[in-house]
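Section 5: illustrative case.
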């Protein structure tokens, strides 16, 4: 064939039969699946915002917040060592040597654990999580607060966040999917650790929210027969509704149903409460810096009054405890509930910005 015949031979056919084949092929092609409004909204958001970068930054913020209370406590050990020695004596430790050794142990464990968690996403981060988890178990006993329910439950919440972080680090090290290497339905160690972390995560928040709901409901003037400190039908109804709401939210986190959204809501609530309460307390202490105040939420110090500086130190500690609770909740937002949940039984959700085209 010469060049002209070759061009003619290779040219696309424009016959009616050819056009009919094209139309039939297009008609037989499957139409794209319809997506829900939520999916369309997520696609629109991801088209404008790089959620992969947001995800990474949120992970860093969560890690910083969860170790905040350990860093603050370690710095307090360093700069107020004499007060910590007195605290050991108040906690019931009779040996003068322990008054010195226990604060030094606290400083070493908390500072090393926090640095390892922040500096490493590998084995070092795992070791840091184990150190901080061990400290969380020992902490209430060291300060004689094992009988303080709120203190223990808040420590349990932070432990839950550390377990969620640990499960993620274990997953990265093993390079294995959360469903395990033995096929669908098999659940590996990271998934089990993550499930236990979710249970612990809501422990303090549940107790704290129910206490606030009780105090608020009692103070509501709901009728002529109701008043502050007087239980009436209206007050009981309000407390019941709030209690059921909190129980429902915490149950969703434990079961892994919409747990990312619920954890984000709880994190926002804890953050707002911590900031507002701390700001109010700071203003009060500044206006009454020469007065003494009762020491609250500390077992063994009921009825004891302290100066404004000591109370401010306590308030700062509780604030960073709350920030660590926020960090623990954000870790659930970042890493998700895992396969032992209602939402992600088939594996973790992916961001559209993280998906690759084959």
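Designed sequence:
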């Amino acid at each position: 064939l010469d060049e002209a015949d070759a061009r003619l031979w290779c040219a696309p056919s424009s016959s009616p039969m050819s056009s009919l084949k094209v139309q039939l092929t297009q008609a037989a092609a499957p139409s794209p699946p319809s997506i829900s409004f939520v999916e369309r909204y997520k696609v629109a958001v991801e088209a404008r915002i790089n959620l992969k970068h947001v995800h990474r930054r949120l992970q860093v913020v969560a890690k910083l917040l969860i170790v905040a209370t350990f860093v603050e406590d370690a710095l307090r050990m360093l700069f107020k060592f004499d007060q910590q020695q007195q605290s050991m004596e108040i906690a019931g430790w009779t040996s003068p040597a322990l008054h010195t050794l226990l604060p030094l142990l606290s400083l070493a464990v908390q500072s090393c654990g926090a640095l390892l968690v922040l500096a490493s996403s590998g084995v070092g981060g795992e070791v840091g999580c184990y150190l901080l988890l061990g400290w969380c178990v020992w902490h209430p006993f060291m300060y004689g607060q094992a009988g303080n329910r709120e203190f223990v439950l808040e420590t349990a919440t932070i432990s839950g966040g550390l377990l969620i972080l640990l499960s993620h680090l274990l997953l990265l090290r093993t390079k294995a999917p959360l469903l395990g290497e033995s096929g669908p339905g098999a659940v590996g160690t990271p998934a089990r650790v993550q499930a236990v972390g979710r249970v612990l995560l809501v422990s303090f928040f549940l107790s704290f929210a129910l206490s606030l709901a009780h105090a608020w409901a009692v103070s509501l003037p709901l009728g002529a027969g109701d008043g502050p400190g007087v239980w009436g039908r209206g007050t009981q109804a309000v407390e019941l509704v709030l209690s059921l709401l909190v129980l429902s939210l915490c149950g969703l986190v434990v079961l892994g149903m919409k747990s990312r959204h619920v954890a984000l809501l709880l994190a926002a609530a804890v953050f707002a409460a911590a900031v507002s309460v701390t700001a109010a307390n700071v203003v009060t202490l500044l206006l009454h810096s020469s007065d003494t105040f009762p020491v609250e939420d500390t077992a063994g110090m009921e009825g004891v009054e302290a100066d404004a500086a000591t109370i401010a130190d306590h308030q700062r500690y509780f604030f960073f405890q709350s920030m660590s609770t926020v960090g623990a909740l954000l870790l659930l937002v970042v890493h998700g509930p895992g396969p032992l949940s209602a939402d992600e039984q088939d594996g973790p959700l992916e961001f559209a910005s993280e998906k690759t085209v084959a």
